[in-house]
Amino acid sequence: MDRELEIKVLNINIEEIEEKLKAKGAEFLGVEIQKNYTFAPKNAKEFSNGYLRIREKTVDDKREATELTFKEVVDNKDNIRVNNEYTTTINSTSNMIKILEEIGLVERYVGDKKRISYNYRGQRFDIDIWSKDVYPDPYMEIEFTNVNLMEEILDEFEIDRKNVTNESINELIEKRK
């Protein structure tokens, strides 16, 4: 299990954010191309405490292992989201989808995402660009190793707090409907 502390920054200008990261000496981690399959119980929009996804990804043109992850929301206050992530590698997306359907889960959406990643001061910055049919606006996700760094980093990058959210991608998608 991994624990993550994360926020999303909405209404970003991709070029401007990348310029700031580079100017501050952030380490470029690479570009991922992902296909995400998200599942929910049959008669619900999502699990009460998180969500389940299959992720296929390519990093810098190299295919990576496909993963099944349950993201459990542990805490969601003070503008930061705390998740426990339970992840395992799977060999077949189609077989896993069949298993999930057989136990009563349904595919909520399938989306392609481009993720541009940087590391700055030990914190991970991911610029996420989803396929327009899933979520049309790019945003930046920041994963913190320490919640006490959040305000300092937001100030350093001059990020307007009205653009900061602790909502999941599922919650953002629902708000747009």
Automatic annotation (TrEMBL):
Q: Name one Pfam family in it.
A: CYTH
Q: Which residues form the CYTH domain?
A: 2-175
Cite the InterPro entries for this sequence: Adenylyl_cyclase_CyaB (IPR008173), CYTH-like_dom_sf (IPR033469), CYTH_domain (IPR023577)
Taxonomic lineage from the root: Bacteria, Bacillati, Bacillota, Tissierellia, Tissierellales
Q: Which domain of life is it from?
A: Bacteria
Alphabetical list of Gene3D superfamilies matching this protein: Hypothetical Protein Pfu-838710-001
Record-given protein name: Class IV adenylate cyclase
SUPFAM superfamilies, alphabetized: CYTH-like phosphatases (SSF55154)
* Organism listed in the record: Anaerococcus obesiensis
